[in-house]
Structures are given as C-alpha cells and as structure tokens.
Amino acid sequence: MKKVAEYDTAIYENRFVMGGAVEFLFVALVRALGFNVGHIGTSEKRGDFEVEGLKFSLKTNFTCKGEIRLINKLGRYVNVTWDEATIFIISGLGIIYADPDLLTTRILDKGDALVVSVENLKRFIEKQDGF
User: Fold this and answer.
1) Hey, where are the domains in the chain?
2) pLDDT tens for each residue of 13-38
3) Cα-Cα-Cα-Cα dihedral of 10, 106, 118, 122, to 10°?
4) Are strands 86-90 and 54-61 parallel, antiparallel or unpaired?
5) Could you give the strand order of the β-sheet that contains 107-109, starting from the edge strand earlier in sequence?
6) Does domain 4-126 bear CATH number 3.40.1350?
7) How many CB atoms lie within 10 A of CB 129?
8) Distance between CA atoms of 47 and 50, rounded to whole angstroms?
9) What's the predicted TM-score (pTM) here?
10) In angstroms, rounded to a whole number, what is the distance separating the alpha carbons of residues 62 and 89?
11) Does residue 47 contact residue 84 with C-beta atoms inside 8 Å?
C-alpha cells in the first residue's frame, strides 16, 4: 500500500506530476458535473483552468500542513500580487475556494514568494457559514 508521503510535493520530482494529475482529475470532475471547462495552463501564466469564462488557479497540499505558494517572485517578478480565484485541494481538509478579497490578511510575503499557510486556510474555512 502506498503512503501519502510518497506523493509529497516537497519531493521536487513529484511536484509537477502530482499537480498535473490533480488538475486533470479536477477538470474531469467539473466536466462531469456538466460545466464547460478547459485547461488554460499552456496559454496562461497564472491560471490553470477556465469554467464558463471564469479563470481559476488550482493549488494542492497533500500533508495538511506547511505553506502553499501562491506566486513565485523569483528573478524579475519582484512586485507581483496574487489576484487569481483559486481552488485549494488539501488532503484531510477538502476543497476550498478563495480569492484575494477573502484572504487578504492571511497572505504572507516571504521575499521569494507569496504564500498562505494551511493553518490560515483552516482558520478561514472555520469562520465560514455551514462549515
């Protein structure tokens, strides 16, 4: 039996494989629900898929701890902001929608990236109605 740790994206080789796999599975799910959805990652720098004309980013975390990189700021991208509607898929926590207006005070600038901690996402969803 495989352990979740074997697919941990902290292991560099797993990062793009797991991210891509989850992206394809999520797009298939949205398509199965009857929505017109397509991958846009090859033509968009910060979007992963588009549903009915709305663009989204998809971020995953398989350990339910640590931080999620929203935007890398390496090299010439020093003055960037996170402005994408984002679907977070977090093992043990679920599927979460958030955008910059919802998480403004929870985003951290680490110098080389804008990040949100999984702990901050947990606090965010605990404050939502119906959770």
Assistant:
1) 4-126
2) 777 788 888 888 999 999 999 999 99
3) -170
4) parallel
5) 67-72, 113-117, 107-109
6) yes
7) 4
8) 8
9) 0.84
10) 8
11) yes
